[in-house]
Amino acid sequence: MDVEGYLAASAARVDKFLDGVLPAIEEPPTRLHAAMRHLLFPGGKRLRPALAFAGAEAVGGTAEAALPAAAAVELIHTYSLVHDDLPCMDDDVERRGMPTVHVAFDEATAVLAGDALQAAAFEVLARAAPQHVPGALADLARAAGSRELVGGQADDLAFDAEGAGLEAVESVHARKSAALIACSVVSGARLAGADEEALARLARFGRDVGVAFQIADDLLDADEGDQCSVVGHLGADGALRRAESLLSRALDGLAPFGSGADALRELSRFAVRRDR
């Protein structure tokens, strides 16, 4: 499978959809709508939408069925980045080679843009196939809430490296990063009509891949001194082994899906083995 080609096709599909559902820059309030689009276009590799499409394919569905889920998870991901970059959080001035939203506009506008992106995610998903909407909305709300993404960010900000062990680090990773990755796979499969057993298997796969993905980030950014890091506990070699162990367990869990899950397999290998 051509992973880069799959990612490019997924990005093009979800970008066209997002461009059509979001307010145009010319629509008042124009400054807010420009801020919402600032980080969303152009995006990154759109890994989460690709995982949503691949999740649908794993259960015999189509990418088209998963499109609302793919868009919703990317909107949540982007909102979280806008807020993470704020001066009261990570205080970053650049992302994806551009000024962060609060630098390009102002802090209040960045807060509001993040709020609006989050609301747009639930609006997009609520317009999906009616029989699957309640479950998909519940999946996304939990992944984005205090028990998962937001709670993981809170614990990351308050992280005490001296008093925390590896379990605490991976707990943050499982919530701040892995929860939305798992939701991407699960929500795509749910909109394609997957049963609860398949969804549970895909959720476990997504969480293992999500933690391994964050460890890969730890390895790439080890020189930046992140306190909440597996590398700090296991060293580079140990962190690499841990990521590979999680990836292997995730891939084993896809066995019941046969060749339909090939895209999930290749995307997960790509996500964890970047630059290796």
Structural summary, described in words:
The structure is a single chain. The protein has 276 residues and is mostly helical. The chain has a single domain, classed as Orthogonal Bundle (Farnesyl Diphosphate Synthase). Helices cover 69% and strands 1% of the residues. It is built from 12 helices and 2 strands, in the order ααααββαααααααα. α4 runs antiparallel to α6. The longest helix is centred in the middle third of the chain and has 26 residues. The mean pLDDT is 94.
Compose a concise summary of this entry.
By secondary structure, the chain is an all-alpha fold.
Terminal residue distance? 18 Å
How many strands appear in the DSSP assignment? 2
Q: Tell me the number of structural domains.
A: 1
Listing every helix as H and every strand as E from the N terminus to the C terminus, the arrangement reads HHHHEEHHHHHHHH
Instruction: Describe the oligomeric state of these chains in a short phrase.
Output: single chain
What sort of overall outline do the alpha carbons produce when their principal axes are compared? globular
Report the sheet with the most strands, covering strand number, pairing sense and barrel closure: 2 strands, antiparallel
The CATH class, by name, is Mainly Alpha
CATH superfamily assignment? Answer: Farnesyl Diphosphate Synthase
List the helices and strands and how they pair.
Elements: H1 3-21, H2 30-40, H3 47-58, H4 67-84, E1 94-95, E2 98-99, H5 101-104, H6 107-126, H7 133-144, H8 149-157, H9 166-191, H10 196-220, H11 230-252, H12 262-272
Antiparallel strand pairs: 1-2
